[in-house]
Amino acid sequence: MSYRVVQWATGNQGVEAIRAILDRPDMKLVGAKVYSADKAGVDAGVLAGREPCGVVATLDVDEILALSAHCVAYFPRLASLDEVCRILASGTNVVTTAFLFHPRSLPADDLARLEAACIRGGSSVHGTGLNPGNLSGVLPLALSGMSRTIEKITLQERADWSFYESTHITFENMRFGRAPEEVTEAASDFLRFNSGIFQEMVALLGRALGAGLDEITSSVELVTAETDHDIFGITLGAGTVSGQRWHWRGLRAGNMLIEIETLWTVGGEYPTHWPAPLDGWTLTLEGEPSIQAHLLTLMSYERPLPLAEHVRAASVATAMQAVNTIPALCAAPAGVQTMADLPLVRAGFGFGNVAPEPLLQIPG
Question: ω before 289 within 30° of 0 (cis)?
Answer without folding.
Answer: yes
